Amino acid sequence: MNVKDDYKDDIIFNEEKLKEALFTHDIRAFRNEYLLLHPYDRAIFYEKVELELRKIMYHYLSPKELAEIFETSEIDEHEYKQFLQEMDTTYAADMISYMFVDNAVDVLNELDKSQVVSYLTLMNKESAAEIKALLHYEEYTAGSIMTTEFVTIPQNSTVSSAMTILRNEAPGAETIYYVFVVDYDNRLTGVVSLRDLIIAHEDTLISTIMSERVVNVLVSEDQEEVARMMKDYNLLAMPVVDFQQHILGIITVDDIIDVLDEEASDDYSKLAGVSNMDTFDKNSLSAAKKRLPWLLILLVLGMLTANLIDLFTETISKVALLAAFIPLIAGTAGNSGTQALAVAVRGIATRDIEDESKVKLLLREAGTGLITGLVCALFVVGLIYIWKQEFIIGLLVGAAIFVSIFVATISGTFIPLFMHRMKVDPAVASGPFITTLNDVISIIIYLGLATLFIGDL
Amino acid sequence: MNVKDDYKDDIIFNEEKLKEALFTHDIRAFRNEYLLLHPYDRAIFYEKVELELRKIMYHYLSPKELAEIFETSEIDEHEYKQFLQEMDTTYAADMISYMFVDNAVDVLNELDKSQVVSYLTLMNKESAAEIKALLHYEEYTAGSIMTTEFVTIPQNSTVSSAMTILRNEAPGAETIYYVFVVDYDNRLTGVVSLRDLIIAHEDTLISTIMSERVVNVLVSEDQEEVARMMKDYNLLAMPVVDFQQHILGIITVDDIIDVLDEEASDDYSKLAGVSNMDTFDKNSLSAAKKRLPWLLILLVLGMLTANLIDLFTETISKVALLAAFIPLIAGTAGNSGTQALAVAVRGIATRDIEDESKVKLLLREAGTGLITGLVCALFVVGLIYIWKQEFIIGLLVGAAIFVSIFVATISGTFIPLFMHRMKVDPAVASGPFITTLNDVISIIIYLGLATLFIGDL
């Protein structure tokens, strides 16, 4: 979500005073106080206030004024529908038409087809056309987050004529700090920053001060890739083009911040087995719905492990102490697996991994597995000896922990890399496999060895 | 890391051609090709190329030109030291003095005190003074990431005089898209965006078009809080002030993107028990060092669990099948705990949680725990009956899973909230506690019940 990247002011506001004004139907007092606020703060108030007061606000604020509120990041996507239903349909349509196109599209994407159509038919042709043009782009592509409100200048213009164009376009454009230069056929040929423009002499030809090889992305590019590029190249806006280099729109830095943020909490929630956790749940049931699938999968896989242990009941009934260390071993394997998994998944997300060879990476992880496994094994042998003066059982546990940490670390790296290659999202799919694999291997080694050396126990 | 927020061009470059030029000591060919690249791409080449070639680059590039490369995000903080050591000391000092102050400080923070001093003494007084001024700010505060290269104008100036100031300052300033207005005592009194400036008539008084209540942060503010504010208020730059509202510096949006990125991978890595994983390890040993502490802590805590199970050896030796389900139960408790933990930690980080009452949150999680617990319990009873026609053992496992999921979900929420209140980072500290707590509780219930009903087994 983005508002024009102008600098707006004020962070503290008087909630009571605003409510008071609404209660007493004092429109002037309300508008004087409210419109002074930063759109983000207006959104906070708008969101919090009781329904009946919000309904009054719809009469006190113009669709255009409300549009600014809807463009802040405070209003969550799943709230759009509800808020829009509170409004008079034409009022809502007007408001959407006043939003920046990319944000308007975000809003409409949350609604049912029928609603979208009714809003589009109610708003002026021009806005409707702009919105329709963006609506058909696939989610998570550059096209889906770009805006069409940007400034282009013909490459044969001078600095002064460019400044004139800027001054005229400024009010509508989402950013004017980069000006994109196009040829007669609207193909992207260069870019000039406003910084360069105001330094340059006004008779200078744009073509002489513009950068000719512009960083740009295809409209079909993945939005996370765009975000990474803008972060790396430190751009405030990225031009989006088609195969013929025609400029279709721009993506501004504030949209990119949101993308990076989502991407991060996304990987994070998947590691924890909570799918799309980024929006915070408002009730238990929906939270449970999100978490159950994962828990149930792991239960089924856990039964495999139980099944396996069951094969060794004889050994266990002889030396019940063996059972005591099963969770310890499985747990440790799980932990080291998760660590390796986290490093790999994060590395894939931030593309650090692509910079180096997969083989080198696996070898390094193998080394890490050996070291951590060895240390933990020796450590646990010591612990068990101190605690129970049991040396042989200690050795069994140590051996199991050593091997399972080693395997867990490698699989925790290999499996996500493999899935990434297979175009499966490694973050979501890797977890259960690795956990189960670790459990199975560690238990086979542990109870297997135990059964062999049962005589010495 | 940030370069001037100008729009630079070109993303693809000819690595071989550049190397060739260095080998043949063709300085002109090298500079012609190299300086056309975006600083980020220059950094990629600089980083990759062999040491001896890089040494040649130090002769072919001016300290100022190299400074631009060092300001890209491609150069990792832990690489600064090594690269600087390759350079002639005065050359290095010069280079640092040409960097934006905030980046120069980032570099120096990676070095030993003695090195810092030697560099500071070698560079010109002015830069040294600017850097020293920033060096003493605590890490992770606004002061530590702000730059002092920003543009201020007196509040009594006109648009045209402001533009003149801008044109002169533009080359040195990190951003000129916001101009901060100050009074005679350099106190922040307002802000004007370049957008407003170029639209306004040149005789207009700044005081009439500036926003008076500027969003700003104290120099001691936490950097994550600053990042959140800039994201929410959609700012390209944030002024940093002292208690008397004197403007000390600005923080630009690109620095904030890095902060948000680090913060995210930070929480993520802590959830997985890999401290500060954000930089990707280049060798096994350092990776092992990072992961071992966590593994060892969990081993010790795991011994508690083992100790506990050991109390029930008698029961287990009678019905060894009981042991088969211990990992299943502990695992499920662990998983649901991690889910709750992830939601809470992420909620705290994104401040979603602050918007609502802690009590409501805990109640909701309790509800989630009840639902998920119940479903999983019934599910597992079914599984065990199908698999082993064991009904009573199934009930025991089910009961244990129900209670432990319930407890795990609540503790997974309560503990991080409590730690947050106690000003301990919930992401890093919560994990082991919750895991152990879950194991202990689930096992007591499971084996406790089993011992009670041993007759029926």
TrEMBL record, chains A, B:
Residues 146-208, 210-268 form the CBS domain. Its main location: membrane. Keywords: CBS domain, Cell membrane, Magnesium, Membrane, Metal-binding, Transmembrane, Transmembrane helix, Transport. GO terms for molecular function: magnesium ion transmembrane transporter activity; metal ion binding. InterPro entries: CBS_dom, CBS_dom_sf, Mg_transptr_MgtE_intracell_dom, MgtE_N_sf, MgtE_transporter, SLC41_membr_dom, SLC41_membr_dom_sf. Pfam families: CBS (PF00571), MgtE (PF01769), MgtE_N (PF03448). The chain crosses the membrane at residues 292-313, 319-345, 366-387, 393-419, 431-454. It is a multi-pass membrane protein. Gene3D superfamilies: CBS-domain, MgtE N-terminal domain-like, SLC41 divalent cation transporters, integral membrane domain. SUPFAM superfamilies: CBS-domain pair (SSF54631), MgtE membrane domain-like (SSF161093), MgtE N-terminal domain-like (SSF158791). GO terms for cellular component: plasma membrane. It is found in: Cell membrane; Membrane. SMART domains: CBS (SM00116), MgtE_N (SM00924). Belongs to the SLC41A transporter family. Acts as a magnesium transporter. Homodimer. This is Magnesium transporter MgtE. It comes from Sporosarcina limicola.
